[in-house]
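User: Is it possible to get a 3D structure for a protein together with its bound compound? The compound here is zinc ion. I've pasted both below.
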Amino acid sequence: MKLTVRTKDRTYPVYIERGILTRAAEIIGRSGHVFLISDDGVPVQWQSILQKQYPQAHMHIFPHGEENKNMTVLQDILADMLDHHVSRNDTVIVLGGGVAGDMGGFAAACYMRGIRYVNIPTTTLSMIDSSIGGKTAVDLHGHKNSVGAFWQPDMVLIDPDTLSTLPKRHVVNGLAEAVKEGMICDEKLFAVFEKDDYMDHLDEIICRCLEIKRDIVERDERESGERKLLNFGHTFGHAYESVSGLHAYLHGECVAMGMMTVLADEEIRARLRKVLERMGLPVRCQADPQEVMRMIRTDKKADHDTISLIQVHQIGKGTIETWTMEETERKLHYE
Ligand SMILES: NC(=O)c1ccc[n+]([C@@H]2O[C@H](COP(=O)([O-])OP(=O)(O)OC[C@H]3O[C@@H](n4cnc5c(N)ncnc54)[C@H](O)[C@@H]3O)[C@@H](O)[C@H]2O)c1
Ligand SMILES: [Zn+2]
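Assistant: Yes, that's possible. Here is the predicted structure of the complex:
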């Protein structure tokens, strides 16, 4: 399947096809030089498939994990690009999860004031959520994604075969974002998780999520309106992520707990709980409410005494609401 994403700066294709990694060079094209970026948690079997197609290219492999999505590692990547004489006309190809995509994309955005990059996401989270939308970033002093840029890829190649090596915890972590998309705008997508085994529908789920995100991002590239819906579960989720340290829970796990915290409708809450528990995702965070509130007050979406939050009163339809800090805090004491 091929999707086209049209943004103000760039129009680019997203290919979703099993085995496409083996044809990457043919699709990307061999003109100009390429610089490959990956991390050491991505199985060598995938890296070598790409490397074989670009025998002259250097692959920069950085240490995996969120703790390495920082300015120091970014600087190493940029220095390596300089050492390898990467020019303005060359292309960065990133192979890996959201950490590699965010940091490799940001390296491409900064290097020589911006060069082309191709994203090859290899986790469910990066396929579903971070491969399109143009957000690139690194963390600074424990603050997630606090330094970054909007920089659109030239192309995205998604090969669901690469998920065969991904541990189950990471598979469901990314799928939490798919459940979220079902909740905010596609009842049918939510029903797949409710009724069937999601593993039988992986390709279909990835494609549907990309379509949803593509449509929202095209209409609201800079997150001034509708794109905010994608933040469902993320206000509490980001706070849980920060309070419990960047290592205790994965992003999607925090989003799962964050959706449960924010939901007001009992029936919807019960349906979501069932889906999340069946997938093996956590539904309640034990974090200290005071600490969580401290993080929420510093959230980008907070404005002194109120905060903009996403609520779902009907599955498949998210709404943007403004809550007071008291209302927000009350949710944290609710079982
Ligand atoms: N830019 C955006 O719009 C956006 C959206 C959501 C999340 N993010 C970012 O994405 C990051 C999380 O992404 P993630 O969950 O993919 O984490 P990740 O990139 O850390 O990948 C998880 C782990 O799996 C390994 N891995 C990658 N592919 C694999 C494969 N096919 N088989 C086996 N192991 C593999 C990685 O090396 C890593 O150790 C966070 O930093 C988050 O901020 C960005
Ligand atoms: Zn998210």
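The mean pLDDT is 93. The chain is about 45% helix and 20% strand.
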